[in-house]
Write a structure and sequence with these properties.
This protein is mostly helical. The longest helix has 33 residues.
Length: 457
């Protein structure tokens, strides 16, 4: 009998797509208002599928690289938890407050477990099947929204929204546009556009998938995401014309630049320069400047600032709701960079930016190769812009997809192996022969380690 592979099983593929589809339908505003984030637990079915397969087959072929990815991603979550607990203890916070904060961030560990399960089952196809599930839910939500206004009215509203570039009066006066404005999924569609255009060379229908993702990206129309998309595409295009060594230099430079920029951004937020520049250029902030100004009373840009602990900003905005201090109706900060600084403190924020951008970039270069590292940084450039004015850092689908796509590319048979800091031209003939043999062996080792089918009995 032949060995069973889940990446080729229609049953496993169908079940996984169904789990992702069901979870993504929870983003439909009708369901979301009734059940909140509860439908997302459906996506945990991927963990069940992985457990069934590993217990049945005993196949541990990819556990070693998956464990390394798990540690890479999990360290960020664990670091935030421990940093917050230390701050809460110093601030003498109650146990219930600490427990609530820990539970808010710990769901990211479930998110990581789902990503690992999907990549274990489907390897390079995990990204594609996740896209199928999320995109299908997005299309169904659009059709359900169109059912309330009619196809003609929905098309007219969508055209008006696009041509006005998401003007507030168009959105507020359209039931259909408000129904299909799914923040998390819209941002994720932008990531999939980048992935299918630049990092999916072995996929036959990559441009069709990119077209679908682009349509859904326009349908959701998050204005900040267009700037994100432009900068990410420019970065990816520059990387395509560079050699591996030049790519490495650019990746490392970009990582350090982002780390420095994040601190600079906090400074101009704190002194009001950021809001003033946008206001002078007539860019709508929709009340964000009031939130930033209010929160500025609770932090300083100084090495002595120790932070407030995870979820402080949300609890702060919730506590002022309905009081004389309320500045806006929303309780989200709409600025993840600012939120991380206020909650993690100066040194916690410094460790976070260096780990997230600099260390992870170096890790991807050395362990996965330049192509995977470019994928990671392109997505990071895209997401960074959204972090500056939105809450995407810990959005469920955003967190899942930005972790999964570099991994899917790593497991793809079409990949580049990491280059060593070795000058082949200065080697002797014997050294060159040994070096090339080692590189060949590493290339073989990086390929998906599938066992050969057993001979039929």
């Amino acid at each position: 009998m032949k060995e069973f592979y889940p990446k080729k099983s229609k049953i496993f593929i169908g079940l996984y797509i169904f789990f992702i589809f069901g979870a993504a339908m929870g983003d439909w505003k009708v369901v979301n208002m009734a059940l909140g984030a509860l439908p997302k637990i459906i996506s945990a079915g991927a963990i069940g599928l992985a457990l069934i397969y590993v217990l049945w087959s005993g196949n541990f072929r990819n556990f070693k690289p998956l464990s390394k990815f798990s540690l890479l991603f999990g360290a960020t979550v664990i670091g935030i938890v421990f940093c917050s607990i230390l701050i809460w203890i110093l601030d003498l916070q109650s146990f219930s407050y600490i427990l609530k904060g820990v539970s808010k961030i710990s769901y990211q560990l479930l998110n990581i477990a789902i990503v690992m399960s999907a990549v274990y089952l489907f390897e390079e196809n995990s990204a594609k099947y996740t896209f199928f599930g999320i995109a299908s839910a997005n299309l169904v939500i659009i059709f359900l929204g169109a059912a309330t206004t009619g196809i003609g009215g929905a098309i007219n509203d969508m055209i008006a929204n696009i041509t006005s570039f998401g003007a507030n009066d168009v959105i507020n006066n359209s039931t259909f546009i408000r129904a299909i404005e799914i923040h998390d999924i819209t941002f994720v569609m932008g990531v999939f556009v980048l992935y299918f255009l630049f990092f999916c060379p072995g996929e036959k229908y990559r441009y069709i998938y990119a077209g679908i993702a682009l349509f859904l990206f326009f349908a959701g129309l998050k204005r900040i995401a267009f700037l994100s998309m432009f900068l990410a595409i420019m970065f990816a295009l520059v990387c395509t014309v560079l050699g591996p060594k030049a790519q490495r230099r650019l990746l490392v430079f970009t990582a350090f630049f982002i780390a420095g920029f994040c601190f600079f951004y906090i400074i101009i937020i704190q002194n009001g320069t950021f809001a003033r520049i946008l206001t002078e250029h007539e860019i709508e902030l929709n009340g964000r400047e009031k939130i930033y100004d209010y929160i500025s009373n609770f932090y300083t840009v100084s090495p002595s600032y120790r932070g407030k602990g995870y979820e402080f900003c949300v609890q702060l905005l919730k506590s002022m709701k309905g009081t004389k201090d309320q500045v806006v109706a929303i309780t989200a900060v709409h600025n993840d960079i600012l939120k991380m600084y206020v909650e993690m403190g100066f040194w916690g924020f410094l460790v976070w930016v260096l780990y997230y951008y600099v260390y992870q970039t170096q890790w991807f270069i050395s362990r996965c190769g330049e192509k995977v590292a470019v994928c990671f940084m392109t997505i990071s450039v895209y997401m960074l812009i959204t972090y500056m004015t939105d809450n995407t850092m810990f959005y469920y689908w955003s967190s899942m997809v930005i972790r999964m796509l570099p991994m899917a590319l790593f497991f793809s048979p079409v990949k580049e192996i990491p280059l060593k800091q070795t000058n082949v031209l200065r080697m002797t003939k014997f050294q060159r022969m040994v070096y090339r043999k080692r590189q060949k062996n590493k290339k073989e080792a990086l390929k998906p380690r599938m066992k050969q089918p057993l001979p039929e009995k």
